[in-house]
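Batch manifest, entry 17 of 40.
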Amino acid sequence: MIRMMIVDDEPIERIALHKIMAESSLDIEVVGEASNGREAIEAAARLQPDLITMDIKMPGINGLQAIEKIREANDSIKFIIVTAFDTFEFAQQAIRLGVYDYMLKPSRISVVLETIGKVANEIKNTQIERQKRSSEKIRLQKMMPMVEAEIVEQLLFDYVPSTYFSEMIDLLGFPSVKNGFVVNVVFTHAMAGGQPEELEELYSKLIQQIHDSSITCWVGKMSGKQVQLIVFTDGELSYRAQAIGLARNLIQALNRKSDYRLFIGVGGQCQDVREMRRSYHEALLASIDSSLPVHYCLYEDVPHADNQALGSLTIELEKSVLDEVRCGKWESAGEQIAKIIDVFEGVGQRIDMAQQRVFELLVNVTKLLQEMGIDVNKPYFRYQTTSYMQLKAETRYLIHQLVEVREAESDLLQTMKQYIRKYAHEDLSLERIAAIVNRNPFYVSKLFKEHFGMNYIDYLTEFRIETAKQLMQESDKSLKEITYEVGYHDPNYFSRVFKKLVGHSPTDYRKMLIRPATKK
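Output type: structure tokens
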């Protein structure tokens, strides 16, 4: 609804216009009145109307002077001049002040409604357009962090950026200074009471902290317990001063907000954003020793990385991979494996040794899946890779195969559920079900336990009892007939199983179903 204010020094004119608006069908509410220019200025600041009808000739501050003052505070208000003169000397000044229209006193009701209605439509269109722009701005603000994260992902991890990379850069706006460095933020093991679900909240606070600061920075997405930042130098501070200042600010701001603790590794400075992969590798190596008391480390301060330090970093990443697989987070597990490969590349590890380490990790992943009851084959690299780009591509292929096996489980479960529903009345053994899906009984038993929280025989029993309850309610069959129909051969045994699961004997349960009908 449009908010309107009436300004006129004659009470009868205000009352008449107020009455016209109250009886009209226009979507307009008169929120206030004023009898002179000074009152109009004060009321406009307080009521924030969308439309003001303004008399010209008023004692003290006249109408045009009041318009000028009101527009200084709020230039979105529309004005309609009300005057007793057909041609008035203030026309030029009114136009300069952006007055939308004018009305003569007195005017016919139809003229008043037509003039005010025309302005009201203009205000509505403006409001709709403003709301549309506001919604688009909100959507863009929500999208920007995702665009940032995608750019960071492609710059640091992908050898060949996507075809939309340039468009994303244009959308985000390239910094005027392209010099920068990579920061690897590691959320170290939680103190007592720290919970994994805190990480997402901490990640949001990290983004907010960076955006509230004066630095120009692109934030990557959370991967495992790490986040990468691409920081652009501002030209005023040295690289070292800016890196240390950022690390200290983040640690001070976020360590007190969570039971998790940050450790920050800072890579060396690059002259162009497309060289950030080197800085990223250096940031990873600077993150190796998270026991440093200052909780941050610059790559230029790191002694030559030895095998023991490299091993400690990759072991932590390998543990993270297994944790993600155990939770079914395959995308995150793949990102962690890519980071392990990046560490090997960063320290100049021979490609054949890196491939062997990745192969051993994938073997451990398959062992974990087999322990979870998922039947998977041991992975094999199809060829000896000759570059780290090939190693990443081949590793992604092997992970994709494991994901396909995992996703095939849902199809197996659906097939087994449909078969049980169809043949639950027969002697349905676990071996028979396993044969239907061409899996061993042990694997099928593990699937039921993992997905339904019960073993196979309990699942079958529960389904039979639910079927029996439905037959009691929807048919007049005897309990003996229902016993045989749902797959039991002994009515007494059926009665005991039914009472154990439902809490009532079949006879009592059927009476409970009938009782409401008897009352009626």
